[in-house]
Amino acid sequence: MKSIRVLHTEWSDGWGGQEIRILQEMLSMRDNGIEVFLACRKKSLIFEKSTKSKIPTFPLPFRGNIDIKTIFELKKIIKQNKISIVNTHSGKDTWVGGFAAKLSGVKFIRTRHLSNPINSSKLNFINRLADYIVTTGEKVKDDMIKNNNILPQKIISIPTGPDEEIFDPRLFSKAESRLNFGIHGQEIAIGMLAVLRQFKRHDLFLNMAKELIDTYPSLRFRFLIAGDGPQMENIKNQAADLKIDKSISILGHINNQAEFLNALDLFILCSDSGEGVPQSLMQALMMNLEIISSDAGSILDLYHNRNLRIVRAGSQDSLNQEVIKFFINSKNDISALTSKREFIIQNFSKKQMIEKTLKIYQEILDK
Known about the structure:
The protein is of the alpha/beta class and 367 residues long. Helices cover 42% and strands 16% of the residues.
């Protein structure tokens, strides 16, 4: 394979599934001989983490869709570093990065992480300029073909693949994992792992927790919320208002996601929109967890052999009923449980993600 140099762009300041995917992809590509670079905002968390990973990282403002100064700064970076491909990730940096790539005569890949619809206006043409589009779920891909006039041969779904060498329940002691996350005795551990953004619907999780505590007063529950983001204070306030804060552990950002998942008895995902194929959900499946998930975005891509209990996105009643049903019928379905990890390894692994992406790089550069 000839030398490939890829410049990623990211406008977001946060640290969630999208930003984790970008960093993971860059590090994996570097391991495969691809030279990687990142342009992002200086105060963003991805700037800090990319710099620590010794990836050449350029701070740029990305002030808006037509940020002329940033476009020409990107052109300079592309020329000086002999970039082959510009890979954009959020809305604003896709416009700016896409224009810079086209003006520089290099290939332009647009990665679409979220599932919310893209404006179908003819003025919203930047995605059609891309040489290739990568989505993180089949539904996102199908919607862009249908609503945004993307040619089927120019778009592919490549979900973010968890690393099977990290997310392996055999590496952890359940008892030690529970102790490390403050889960004691016979407490039933129910958790969420997600950036604290509104569409993740932590409010549904907290209302469900209140329902369980009231319905089963003889049981001891520990509800754990892992992740950081703009909804932190709202979540704390809601837990206090519901008078369940003594049963809630709000952990903030954690680095040991696999051990956190290993500590749980039940994993919950409540998103009402915005999802491709969520990383935390794939990670939970790889850890062979019992899972209740909404059907938002492309989540149903992961449904196989009853490995998930599915609830209607945004529905408090649907979530509460399924959780209570789980406790009424608490006997595990062993056939579904044992197949969860293998299904993810075979269809959504990190290795497959990298192989598919490398193939796209080569295809567009050969044209």
